[in-house]
């Protein structure tokens, strides 16, 4: 039985985000003028490497996975994709200005810290493993009634779910009409169709086939069709069409040039 939603959300007492002593230290030793992290405002000489290549990730040019030499903020540990999303949320949505009941599934640590402290957001974090979230949730069977949330953030989750269209339908069901969901997934630039094979069950087979041992597919652009078949209107946001607001020609936030954001809107 789900707990009353507003009660959970309001039980989060807003607290001011203050950098910890270790963050101050890291801000100092990594200080530079080349880059900037929009999430923690650190000015940086470089980002840290993140990710690991496998042959299939390289061959299929999977955006959002694989080794990137400068991906992670050394201060708040945000990744390139977290920074893109934060910039989108601040500049292209009213999330930080108008009241929103937000469901954040499998929350990214750096985003979670900012979202749960924002006065405009009634925040609920959830995961199948609730160790670091407010509640446990199976997104193929969400324990809330329809039209419960104004917005949902669920990144790099659907690629782990066997019945991804069931999860998409559940996300659609619990969104308010007019609501939106950021549903980022790793996506191949070369595959014409999403590659999945449910007969591959061992971690070794999955790593070889999908690039990570807990992934069950590699999406191609027909990912958009799956979302549309559920009823979503899909916005594909390309930050390079708005460079001046996303780090300029110098790409000072070091976003991935090819990364697009997939925003699923529930029609009003
Ligand atoms: Zn940062």
List the helices and strands and how they pair.
Blueprint: H1 5-10, H2 21-29, E1 31-36, E2 43-44, E3 48-50, H3 55-59, E4 62-63, E5 68-72, H4 80-92, E6 100-105, H5 109-115, E7 121-127, E8 135-136, E9 149-154, H6 164-174, E10 175-182, E11 187-188, E12 195-196, H7 203-210, E13 217-218, H8 223-230, E14 233-238, E15 260-265
Parallel strand pairs: 6-7, 6-9, 7-8, 9-10
Antiparallel strand pairs: 1-2, 3-5, 4-11, 10-15, 12-13, 14-15
The structure holds zinc ion.
Could you describe the 3D structure shown?
The protein is of the alpha/beta class. It has a domain at 80-248 and 259-265: 3-Layer(aba) Sandwich (Rossmann fold), CATH 3.40.50. Helices cover 25% and strands 24% of the residues. It has helices spanning 5-10, 21-29, 55-59, 80-92, 109-115, 164-174, 203-210, 223-230, and strands spanning 31-36, 43-44, 48-50, 62-63, 68-72, 100-105, 121-127, 135-136, 149-154, 175-182, 187-188, 195-196, 217-218, 233-238, 260-265. The strands form five sheets. The chain has a seven-stranded mixed sheet with strand order 8-7-6-9-10-15-14. A two-stranded antiparallel ribbon has the order 1-2. A two-stranded antiparallel sheet has the order 3-5. Bound molecules: zinc ion. Zinc ion binds at residues 37, 39-40, 42, 73, 75-76, 78. Zinc ion (ZN) binds next to loops.
